[in-house]
Design a protein that fits this description.
The structure is a homodimer of 192-residue chains. Chain A is mainly α. Chain A has two domains: 18-69, Arc Repressor Mutant, subunit A (Orthogonal Bundle); 77-190, no CATH class. Helices cover 65% and strands 0% of the residues of chain A. Chain A has nine helices and no strands. Chain A has helices spanning 18-38, 41-48, 52-59, 62-69, 87-96, 101-112, 117-138, 144-160, 172-190. The longest helix of chain A is centred in the middle third of the chain and has 22 residues, at 117-138. In chain A, 41% of the residues are buried. Mean pLDDT of chain A is 92; it is low at 1-8. Chains A and B meet through α1, α7, α8 and α9 of A and α1, α7, α8 and α9 of B. Chain A binds a DNA duplex (30 and 30 nucleotides) through α3.
Amino acid sequence: MEHASDDEQAPEAEGATPTQRAIALAARELFEAKGYGAASIREIAKAAGVDPALVIRHFGSKDELFARVIGFDEHFAPHLDGPLGTVGERLTAYLLDASHTQLRASFSAIVRAADHERVRVEFQDSLRRLLVEKLSARMSGDDTLLRAWLVSAQLVGLIHSWDAVGGESATPEARAQVARLYGAAIQKLITP
Amino acid sequence: MEHASDDEQAPEAEGATPTQRAIALAARELFEAKGYGAASIREIAKAAGVDPALVIRHFGSKDELFARVIGFDEHFAPHLDGPLGTVGERLTAYLLDASHTQLRASFSAIVRAADHERVRVEFQDSLRRLLVEKLSARMSGDDTLLRAWLVSAQLVGLIHSWDAVGGESATPEARAQVARLYGAAIQKLITP
DNA sequence: AATGCTCAGTCAACACTGTTGACACGGTTC
DNA sequence: GAACCGTGTCAACAGTGTTGACTGAGCATT
């Protein structure tokens, strides 16, 4: 909402051409399903019914396409608003909720694509805007910004290790237990 | 130490041929310096003075080469032995210590290469053997294994976000502060 | 001594990747 | 009508990981 000029539109906004939206949609689905590396531009183009070169024409590069299409928008913001004493557990529970598979798929794809610097810095920036700064603003005590970064680091680690710690097949009870335990650990950084 | 048969030697052990050791050494250095994706097999081969095909001949694939050459062996084990009440901070402090750049480089390369499944499962296995099981064995209460996995998740997240939270240029004081804060959060899962 | 066997090492090629340049079409503006 | 611009297409590029056919040396067996 910062600037509504005529270029650099979000790929799924109304200003984008149908082709761009088709590419963005196919890219999003394939990135989430197969990860950054395994989803090739040619495959994305084919799924969108478009020439591979056109994907690059519109989005510049694979890195940029990924960064523009994969994200976690305003998912976290609502859960930073409630009582501060339980925000850790609420964040974790939200992230692990069985019905939020797509959020996890996006988040996981980004975390796993960290080998690409462009993706990394874009991700860090999103995290800062959408989580760290908002959370830090509500915290009190010393090093609020640092502690908020560490909270985000914990969430990243949880997603990275989600397979080892339960995975998509975990029961709701298991998820709740992880949310309780990990949420408490996160909370230690928010209200020590 | 499980089986000392004549094949499947560790690439830097005495049983390996000089060429294999040269490849392993070059691969390690390049992987740590440039990351998994940016270090090509042809580049590694050139640095080792060897034909690229020979690298594959000896190590099977790039994934396997990476998994065999990059690791964090017994780095964590010693710090799991001391008093249990401060193991969180000691682990974190050790991981962030300014003189342990190479450990961080290895760890970071692995975490960032998570887009490759082979690397991921190998990493998870190492984590289980070298950290989770040993830590879990010392813990008491419910869900010790799950909680130990969550500890490892926190360390992964810290490495993943290390740039955002200080990075290699952080002062020793900053590192100590992170170790104190993050260590306390980790500790919450070990001795709640 | 001659044979065969294994294994390190080499070379050219494969299929695939992301990306680019030259070109064609269609609509808008002068 | 002419010049332009953005969308779309095609073939090609350089680079990637990987493979198959080949050489050659050392060693064992007959």
